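A quick aside before the break. I want you to see a complete sequence-to-structure record at least once, exactly as it would be stored in a machine-readable document. Don't worry about memorizing anything.
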Amino acid sequence: MVNTLAPGRWSLLLLVPLLLASCDSVISTVPLGTPSQDAAVNKSLDGVWLGGDGQVLYIKHVNDGELRIAGVEWKDGRFQLSELAAYLTIEQDVRYVNLVDPESDKEKPKYLLARLAPTTGDDLVVYPPQAAAFAEAVNERRLSGTVTKHKHSTAVELTADKDRLDAFVDPEQVGRQFQIDTPVVLRRIGKVGE
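That is the input. The structure line, written in tokens, reads:
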């Protein structure tokens, strides 16, 4: 499998095991949805999470849907902390996470998108996007952006305006637009301090 993201980008433990389910990628110049104002939903993501690959992630809600995600990795002969910003958003009563590319311009950030299933108990279910559905929308000019095909993967960069992106993502099309058959499941194993 080819990582369609540039080497060195999205370092946070291979971008949070959140989107390991695919080598394809969908990146957007605008976040999907509007920031979550629901304090209970926002705090429900706080915790120490274990990914299926054994990687441990720390997630902390900061304010109005803003999250900080951190992990520790072994690099250059020592442990290094990796941290990135993300936004919990809601569109048509569905929750999404928009991970900020730490290497993108701070004035013009780029986001990696994923859909979240309602958090039940100690499991967080994350559905990465189906790159093929977004690539098709770009190719048919329903969304603006670029599609780059590699030998074994597809990279989609969306440049659509926010209203078009929000309107395109349809809860009725969840199985077509997101990888519901191959979700990433994180298990809460602890709490993060106040």
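Two observations worth writing down. The radius of gyration is 16 Å. The first strand starts at residue 25 and ends at 28. We'll return to this after the break.
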